[in-house]
Task: inverse folding
C-alpha cells in the first residue's frame, strides 16, 4: 500500500487523477495477494513495482469490441512502479513477465485498460504492440480508459 500511496501522490502531482483513496483499496490489493495474482519486483526487501494478472474481466469490458473472441484471455491490472524507480525499465520488465506468462500458460491474448488522462501509460502500451479496441468509463473518473489488446496467436 505504501508503493501505491507514493504512485498516487506522484500521479496527482502530475495532474493524473487515475487512482485515489477509492481505488485501489486495501481490499482489492488483499484479494490480489490472496489469489496469488499479484507479482512484485523487489529491490532489497522493498517492493518497487507490481502487476496483477487475472482471467477475471471488469464488467465494463463486456461493451468493448475486442480483437479476439476466442480462447483464453489474460487481463493486466494495477501495473505500478514506485516513482523513485520509474524510467528504469521496471514497467517494461513487468510487462515482459506478463507476456511471457501468457505465452507459457497458453493464453490467446492479453487485455488491459489505460487511463486516457495518463498519456505516458497509453504510449507505453501502444509501443508494446497493444491495439486499442474501445473505451470504457469507471466510476468516479471523468475521462475514459482506453481498452487495449495484444493477440498472442502465432
Result:
Amino acid at each position: 500500500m505504501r508503493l501505491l500511496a507514493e504512485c498516487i501522490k506522484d500521479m496527482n502531482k502530475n495532474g493524473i487523477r487515475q487512482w485515489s483513496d477509492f481505488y485501489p483499496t486495501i481490499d482489492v490489493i488483499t484479494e490480489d495477494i490472496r489469489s496469488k495474482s499479484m507479482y512484485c519486483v523487489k529491490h532489497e526487501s522493498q517492493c518497487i513495482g507490481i502487476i496483477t494478472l487475472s482471467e477475471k474481466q471488469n464488467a465494463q469490458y463486456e461493451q468493448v469490441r475486442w480483437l479476439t473472441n476466442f480462447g483464453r484471455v489474460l487481463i493486466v491490472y494495477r501495473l505500478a512502479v514506485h516513482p523513485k524507480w520509474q524510467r528504469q525499465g521496471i514497467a517494461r520488465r513487468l510487462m515482459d513477465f506478463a507476456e511471457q506468462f501468457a505465452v507459457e500458460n497458453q493464453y490467446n491474448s492479453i487485455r488491459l485498460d489505460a487511463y486516457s488522462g495518463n498519456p505516458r501509460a497509453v504510449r507505453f502500451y501502444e509501443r508494446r504492440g497493444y491495439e486499442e479496441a474501445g473505451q470504457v468509463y469507471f466510476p468516479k473518473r471523468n475521462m475514459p480508459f482506453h481498452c487495449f489488446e495484444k493477440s498472442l496467436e502465432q
The mean pLDDT is 94. The CA atoms of residues 59 and 136 lie 10 Å apart.
